[in-house]
Amino acid sequence: MVRESSPPAGRSLSSTQVRAIQAAMRLFVEEDLTESEEPSRRLYCDACQRAQPAPGFIRYCRYQICNGCATEYELAQARGLTGSAGQFVRDRQFGETFDLLDSPEFSETSGYQVSPASS
Ligand SMILES: [Zn+2]
Known about the structure:
Blueprint (H helix, E strand, L loop, with lengths): L14 H20 L7 E3 L6 E3 L4 E3 L2 E3 L1 H12 L6 H9 L26
The protein binds zinc ion (ZN).
């Protein structure tokens, strides 16, 4: 229950953990490709606001997010840095790099919790 106002750095991930998440996200691409998703088809990514290759798109609530952005989102989630997909999408749309911890909007995001370090 101790929550001090130290900089909310989140957890840091080992390179192994990062690679595991990236590998898991790549599976979505491969799965889409085996399900005859056309590699050349493109979808609009709500996060980076660009047309991106359709295979690997992930749907979060009402957003569709390209594989690259989704990977970034999952990494941020794993580090305890982000709340909802909507928050992530808004942040990307404003061209922010993923450093939204000072955002006052965060208090409105009910899903956001700083995971206490287990030490
Ligand atoms: Zn994207």
